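Structure tokens please, single chain.
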Amino acid sequence: MRRNVQHHLTVNGEPLEASFAPYKTLLEVLREDLGLTGTKHGCELGECGACAVLVDGEPQLSCLALAIECEGRSIETVEGLGRGAALHPLQSAFADLGAAQCGYCTPGILMTAKALLEKEKNPSRERIKEAISGNLCRCTGYQQIFEAIEEAARVLSEEDGHESQAMKVRP
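Here you go.
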């Protein structure tokens, strides 16, 4: 008989203790043990990207990662994407531009796009396509997704510009 073991995880910036079996995937622990159902079960073969989360800032397919491998690492899910009550610019752009239709693939795409935009402030359309190439969407045809990521990059760039200006004005 396999026993559950206490593990320490940091999810969406919060240190958590969770008890789970060592064979459980990160996807299973997030959804079943921590109640974070924004991360979706897709193919469970690492081919669709619906389960993508960020582990130490890098996109990871949570269906392929054992949860115990993530102990001591920072895990970010779509639930941690917003800024308090405000949506993240990616979420706003997806909603405004119709990039999320059925929405099943959206959490994985949002997290993958967030990782891209944290590394590249103004990625080209080709870089966006490359970054989300592991995320499958059967509804949109991707055009709205590309446009939403470009719009979010623009908004984030403007926000960075405003923060830089505010820092210069301070005495």
